[in-house]
Every structure is written in C-alpha cells, then in structure tokens.
C-alpha cells in the first residue's frame, strides 16, 4: 500500500510474550524449557500480568510508577493482535496467535452470522445472549497442550490468581489447563495469596490484574483515573517485592498497550456505505479488524477499504496478511479460518466501530490491538529478592 509504513512484526521466538513463561520455568530448573530471555536461576517465581500496562505508557508516567520503572529492562512484544485473549493464550502456550488459534477479542467462525467473543465464550454484540461453552468445547477450540500441564508433570504446578469469574470460564478451560486456580479479585488478595504460596521451597505463582485496562478503556490512558490506578499498581508491586521470600524472581508485564482515540477518530461502519457494501461481519476490535465478506465481494471490499482507509490502516487480503508474519511464522488451518477474508490494522489515529453491533465499544476512550509500538510493546520488569 503506497504511502503506508512497513508493518513491524512482533519478535516471535526471541522476545515476545510467548517466550516469557518457558524462560521462567527454565529459571526454576525444569528440564525441557527454553530460556531465550534469558533468566538466571531462581528458587521461586512470581509473575504478575497487569492488563493494559504498555511499555510506552509506563515510561511516560514515571512519577506515577517509580518502582516499576526502577526495575525495567528491554520490553517484550505482545503479538498480533495486541489484545488480552491472544496475549494470554501466547503466554499460556508459548505459541504465537497463528498457532494457538485464539486470534482476537472476537473471531470469525464458519457457520455463524455473528462474531465469537473469546473472553465471554459467546456470540458477540447486540442480540440474544448465546453461550457457546457446550457447542464449542474450549479444549477443542484450543487443543494444544499448555505450559501449565507440562510444568505440573515436571512437579511444579502453576498457581493462577485472578478474578473469581475466570474460574472454569471458556477461555480458562482453553488455555489454563493444568493450572491451580485461586480466586483473587484485588491486588491485595493477589499479594496475600501469592506470599502464602511462595512460602514453599519451589513455586510458580501467576497473578492477573484487570483494573488498569478497565480504567484505560473507560477514561483513557491520559486521564487522572488511569494514572491513579497505575500508582496503585506500583505501590502494590513494591510492597509485594519487599515481602518476597529469598531466591524469588518477581516479573511484571502486560498483555498490550493502549492509545486514546477521540470520538471523531472512531469511524462507524454504518455511516460509510462505501465501506459497508459487501461486508458480512466484522470481528477483532476497533484497531485490529477481521473483515468477512459476502461471496464474491472480497476484491471490491479490499479496494474500497484501501481507498478510504489506506492512509491510516494496513489492509490486507487474508493470505497477504499471513505472509507478513504478523501472526507468527506458522498459521494453522484452524487459525486461518478465524481471520476472515481481510485484515485491517491501524497505524494512524483511527478505529472502526459498529454502534449497531457493540455501542459500548464505540463509547470507549482507550483502544488497542494493532502493531504500533504503543500497543505492541509491554514491560519486562524484573526484581530478585
């Protein structure tokens, strides 16, 4: 696409989220796990993933997060799309999205006229709530063995601390097999349970905290509310670090960054018939869209989208997008059919929304998903007790 920058490819295989957990397990001395990051030996590991904690945001808000910035090393890349479902799946399987197949917040699934919401395991958007946990078995949707299963077999179970409603959810069943789940609905609860579990001589504890992401989506990453939540995270991590038992490695990261978009930078497909013509459904999210077209319309939709959006988005036909490497070096047939016919990824200040499908997303201030450094780079913060 003339005039558009070259799309950066996530650092799969060397410095992406997919390399993090194997490196941590290797640091614990477990055989069979690569250590590409590389991490020094540890007796215990505590991994905290703060949803929505982007590297550029952390650097830009040093006064709000002095401790986190003090333990920062070279960042990691999230993977494409830079979104929670894909990132957590890469973390859990050590594979890029093209291989684990959970390639977005929402995905195109053959045989369905609405997109599939990976986080809720149901059909996406306005309309009847259709839970698909029985119809689309999570263990079949993501059949690849998890790192937690391998770690448990090696004698070190991964203890997962997170919101209670994640226990037994479709996504947890798909990527959390082998973990021992512990409800922890706040940073205080994560700290309390983590310290108890880390009292064992050999332990791996993984905590997940969602509230920074929520603040960013609702109020924007430039808001005081977001900075206040970052300060809460910084203080909690410092207090946790101060109480860790000896020989513990604490690692803090995120699953994606975020950018603020003004209302006029959110383009509603319903208001642009030139872009809507030939489109069967949209999946993904505002800045990383999968476009499914009606039969025979792919070429025309590609031409229209490039004509209108090509100065702000990379727009590819599916096989062209796969060929760039953004999904990883290998894309399975299972992942391929969930991408749709076109891929549109923002590099400019734009998001594509559908108020008649998801009015809530159209009201958000913070967005993510694409290949820009603001969305892709996540912190790699290391503290040793």
Write the layout of secondary structure elements.
Elements: H1 20-27, E1 44-50, H2 55-60, H3 66-70, E2 72-77, H4 84-93, H5 97-100, E3 106-107, E4 116-117, E5 122-123, H6 138-141, H7 147-153, E6 158-162, H8 170-175, E7 180-183, H9 187-197, E8 203-209, H10 211-219, H11 224-243, E9 248-253, E10 259-260, E11 266-268, H12 273-276, E12 279-285, E13 288-293, H13 298-309, E14 313-317, H14 318-324, H15 333-339, E15 342-346, E16 351-353, H16 359-362, E17 366-367, H17 373-376, E18 377-384
Parallel strand pairs: 1-8, 1-9, 6-7, 6-8, 11-16
Antiparallel strand pairs: 2-18, 3-4, 4-5, 9-18, 10-17, 12-13, 13-15, 14-15
Write a concise synopsis of the structure shown.
With 385 residues, the chain is α/β, with parallel strands linked by helices. The protein is built from 17 helices and 18 strands. It has helices at 20-27, 55-60, 66-70, 84-93, 97-100, 138-141, 147-153, 170-175, 187-197, 211-219, 224-243, 273-276, 298-309, 318-324, 333-339, 359-362, 373-376; strands spanning 44-50, 72-77, 106-107, 116-117, 122-123, 158-162, 180-183, 203-209, 248-253, 259-260, 266-268, 279-285, 288-293, 313-317, 342-346, 351-353, 366-367, 377-384.
